[in-house]
Give the backbone structure.
Amino acid sequence: MSITVSNISKSYKSVKALENISFNVKEGELFGLIGPDGAGKTTLFRILTTLLIANEGSATVADFDVVIDYKKIRNNVGYMPGKFSLYQDLTIEENLNFFATIFGTTIEENYDLIKEIYVQIEPFKNRRAGKLSGGMKQKLALCCALIHKPKVLFLDEPTTGVDPVSRKEFWDMLKRLQQKGITILVSTPYMDEAALCDRIALIQDGKILQIDTPQAIVKHYPKPIFNVRANNTYQLINSLKAYEHNHSVYPFGEFVHYTDKRADFEREDLIQYLESENLSDIEIEKTLPTIEDTFMELAK
Amino acid sequence: MNKKNVIEAQNLTKMFGDFTAVNAISFDVKKGEIFGFLGANGAGKTTAMKMLIGISKPTSGAAKVAGFDVFTNAEDIKKNIGYMSQKFALYDDLTVKENITFFGGIYGLSRKSIKEKSAVLIEELGLEKVASKLVGSLPLGWKQKLSFSVSLLHDPKIVFLDEPTGGVDPITRRQFWEMIYKAANQGTTVFVTTHYMDEAEYCDRVSIMVNGKIEALDTPKKLKQQFNVANMNDVFLKLARG
């Protein structure tokens, strides 16, 4: 196992940031922590990267205990925090050199690992980090986290606030790093990125809601889901919420996702009801649940 | 200005030195419309929005917002719009009530009106129990919902939302959009940027900026037809990859 987490809890004063968290990440796995702001993702990252000590429980990273062997862990992991934390007044090249030196290595020694990412920012290598665009900062931070060839890579919300194109490029990059044998623990608030991980943990309010492969998580969704559409979406949402048999009603792209309390859902009943609410152009079609549907069902 | 339009922009342009951040964009937004303003990081969205809300003077072109000219009546624009962004929303070290009172005062509402609106707002958002707590202690999702309500305090004609739902949990994100639908249904125009492509589908019309230009503008349905793809994410990927 690359990462083991056993019954970890952490509180800040009266706030329980993590409550009895346990999971394992296998070697070479791309494991996602999926949850919104305030779920406890960053606290967990800080515990696993030995920057914070848990109140209860134990954890290992690359077979080292996070408390006893913290120095060894630091040599074996790369950490890209959610907040940009490189030296703003050093250039790209200086930052990278600095981190390589700290870890007793050189840019040349592990160049093959970062090459693909570094060539994209190399034309600007004399520019100060503080003057880079968001996308370039992100690439530099990833290079710095990789320069000592870590066994395990921790990425805390690397794609938050990043547009869909750059997000896709970033995930393509992660997949290629994984193929080089690096274990990756990545957190994200974007549910659509969950599908790109080998396994995921859904996390909210310091608790893990579920751990499994993305495929298995959607498979275990307990109810049939229907795409509903009508001429006025706002009114449709209100009407569905007022419908006595509704179990859940969530806007979902161009449709509203609807689940029914009854075991045998009567489609015609619902159409009649919506028509009586003065809605028209009504469409109801069965659809497949997504990770986000599962998350909302579990978090309800 | 066409009566139904609350935003009209013609060849609106902003240059910083030699760099053209916004390149002759033209579009109209109607009253009560939910208008999605999309683009990759660095495409020029924020610069364009700053011109529309009257805090950055365009280099050339023309635009009217809520009936006022962005060149000559920027101050009137500010009084007639609401604005919220993810980065700056409310004062963390004021309570919920204090924030409402403060912003109500800024917008020139009477004490009586602030008191009434404050009570309604707190009840609608279910914030009775935390009304006297510091905003900094609230979960992000609550803050964002409160911030949106505060931006509507003075009944603006248009509200500008800059990535209002980033990092918010999926249930709260939907509650937020239901608030947007409600505001639009009551006639407020909503101008919104987002990186969540499912949220692009909630908009009446969507524009996509690429390198300073608006490269696409239509209803989500028509954009999907035009690019022959299943969802807005694919529209975005096709366009913004250039």
Notes: The mean pLDDT of chain A is 94. Chain A has two domains: 3-215, 225-299. Chain A touches chain B at residues 35-39, 133-135, 157, 160-168, 189-192, 204, 233-234, 237, 250-254, 292, 295-296, 299-300 (CB under 8 Å).
